[in-house]
Amino acid sequence: MIGKRKNKGGGERKSTATLVLSGAISHNPEKYASRLLEPGGGLRPIGDPPRGLTKAELLCWHEILATCHAGTVFEEDRFVVEEFAKVLAAMKNRKSKKIDAATYARFFKLVAMFGLSPADRSRVSVQPGTGYDENNPFSGLTQ
Prior knowledge:
Elements: H1 16-22, H2 24-27, H3 55-67, H4 78-92, H5 101-113, H6 118-121
């Protein structure tokens, strides 16, 4: 399949940031040793939204970043967040109640990529620690 990278178990490949948050890398460091050379490494914050977004897309950009798990979206992800903002804005601002199949599929692909579906969210562990706020379910996520 084009665009999907399968792992040995048959599922889609998870981002390194998701593996760090879930504890998989610390549990099995030998398995993920090849990811030490991953470009970018998620060290730079995503920064301001790109120029040229409409007002609706700009609102969606901020909504997406506010919804994503802490420590999983970085500068290297800007193009994908921009695309997600455009698709989300298109879905919210549509004139009819019908959504074309391509937009619908793209939206749910992006939701899954960012771990925002219930199934994907269940793969991220929340570890209470310093600064943990029981009113914020994402405050305990650590890198």
